[in-house]
Amino acid sequence: METVSVVERYGGQNGRSIEWDARVDKQNSLQPIGHTQRRRSNQFSLSYFKAFFMDVFLPQGYPESVTDDYMEYQMWDTIQAFASSITGALATEAVLKGAGVGDETATALAATMTWLMKDGTGMVGRIIFAWARGTQLDSDCKKWRLVADILNDTAIMIDLLAPHFRFIFTYLVCLSSLCRSIVGVAGGATRAALTQHQARRNNLADVSAKDGSQETLVNLSALMCNLTLLPLVSGKLTIVWTLYAVFTALHIFANYRAVRSLRIDTLNRKRLHICVRNCKGGVLDIARVNQLEPLFQNPTGPRHFGCTLQHVLEQLPHPRQYRYWHADERFCAQLDGDTGFVALREDAILEDQLRAAFMVEYYSIFNQPCSSSDFDKFREGLAQMGWRLEVLHLDFDEWRYSVKKSR
User: Fold this and answer.
1) Each residue of 70-81: pLDDT tens digit?
2) How many other C-beta atoms are found inside a 10 Å radius of the C-beta of residue 197?
3) Which residues are in the Root UVB sensitive protein C-terminal domain (predicted)?
4) Where are the beta strands (DSSP E) in 353-399?
5) Which residues pair with 21 in a beta bridge?
6) In whole angstroms, what separates CA 291 from the centre of its chain?
7) Cβ(159)–Cβ(89) below 8 Å
8) Is the CB of residue 29 less than 8 Å from the CB of residue 4?
9) What is the pLDDT of residue 105?
10) How does the average pLDDT of the chain come out, rounded?
């Protein structure tokens, strides 16, 4: 019988392995020889601590279980979270001082009422913002991730200013709470969207949990720094504002680099427009499109996708008007100048949404209607480049039409 050596590695990590000898019998089965032996690096070696750290803070199966942009994004996200924790501690001290902590003339009731009004403003703000912008947090998560962090820095600045304007202190902390309410909704929702993007083995919960562990570790590190830093800078306005400026700049820069590192493989309106604009030379790859995607500027005119058919047909004639509608089609697409409209029939499927949006963007860019072969070639190019076409973030509304013959 032939003797072989079997090596088993956990997740491809060299620091965790099992090696054992076996014989191959006539039935081509393995028969272990002696006891199974675990061969691993010294418990206090660098590779051991690296493997332990990865187990605690990274999703199981990393890096195969997440997207290629995971580590770069998490690195910049860690830096921005640390910077935000430092400035947040400065703001907390300022708000407590403004609320009367350490002031013998202040009353507990006044501080409580201020805090209740601040919390109430934030609650109302969360509801209104989620209603007004909820659907955009999926499709334009990069933009809203940045907006959330900029608003967070704005809220901290307001908190730092508030103690110096006692006569409007309550209004200022309510305003900062309103900003933070938007931060909470936008930050949490976009984090969920990005976790869904990063999870590649249906392991969304694991990726989310490990992200929470990473954030907690960063906050603990920032806590230790704050315990040392705050007693040294308390009451020294020049140093406080200098620290705020430095860490805010770091916070915004790290957030910008974080969202720029993302390579999202689903189409939103911006990424679709970029793909269509370059489709005659071949569909661009995912990394290139994400690199070209503007974070704030909208490269297209207004788009009314999923609107009523009546709204489309009632549009006044325009010198640059294009309409595509046939009785056997499940959608009606129209472009008036730079404004695009798409109405969907009640039996429209996801491919109809992509095709209708493609027609609008194609005419908007090339000033000529597309053919069926143009769309087929475009769709095949998207699939070849790895774009996920089973998920679209084109922000279609819920209106659907049906046509019935009158009696």
Assistant:
1) 999 999 999 999
2) 23
3) 372-401
4) 392-393
5) 5
6) 15
7) no
8) no
9) 60
10) 90
Helices and strands in the chain, H and E counts:
13, 11
Q: What number of other Cβ atoms are within 10 A of residue 23's Cβ? A: 13
In a shared domain, residues 178 and 307: no
Q: Average the pLDDT over each of 33-42, 142-151, 249-258 and give the range with the smallest value.
A: 33-42
Q: Minimum mean pLDDT among 98-112, 144-158, 217-231, 300-314: which range?
A: 98-112
Nearest by Cα to 173 from 186, 185, 160: 160
Q: State yes or no: cis peptide before 59, omega within 30 of 0.
A: no
Domain end call among 244, 260, 276 = 260
Tell whether the model's pLDDT for residue 15 goes beyond 60: no
Percent of the chain with pLDDT over 70: 93
Compute and round to an integer the Cα radius of gyration of the chain. 28
Q: Is residue 122 part of a domain?
A: yes
Indicate whether 63 pLDDT > 90: no
Which burial class, exposed, middle or buried, applies to 333 when counting CB atoms under 10 A from its CB (0-12, 13-18, 19+)?
buried
DSSP secondary-structure letter at 1? -
Residue whose structure tokens are 């900029």? 150
Do 202 and 347 share a domain, yes or no?
no
* 162-175 b/e (C-beta count within 10 Å ≥ 16 → b): bbeeeeebbebbbb
- Cβ 191 vs Cβ 211: under 8 Å: yes
pLDDT tens, residue by residue, 19-60: 778 778 777 787 788 655 555 555 556 777 888 888 899 999
DSSP-assigned letters across all residues of 120-135: HHHHHHHHHHHHHHTT
Cα 255 to Cα 107: distance, rounded to the nearest angstrom = 40
β-strand pairing of 303-305 with 267-268: unpaired
Take residue 374 and report the two structure tokens written for it: 């143009």
The per-residue pLDDT for 44 is 58
Q: What are the Cα distances from residue 196, in Å, to 35, 67, 189, 393?
A: 43, 10, 11, 13
Residue with tokens 């039996």: 347
CA distances from 255 to 90, 103, 248, 302 (A): 20, 38, 10, 28
Q: What angle do CA 367, 311, 335 make, to 5 degrees?
A: 5
| 316-343 residue pLDDT tens | 777 778 999 888 889 999 999 889 999 9
In-domain check, residue 355? yes
Whether residue 64 is contained in a domain is answered as: no
**Domain span including residue 9:** 2-55
Residues 210 and 339 in one domain: no
What H or E segment, with its residue span, contains residue 180? helix 169-198
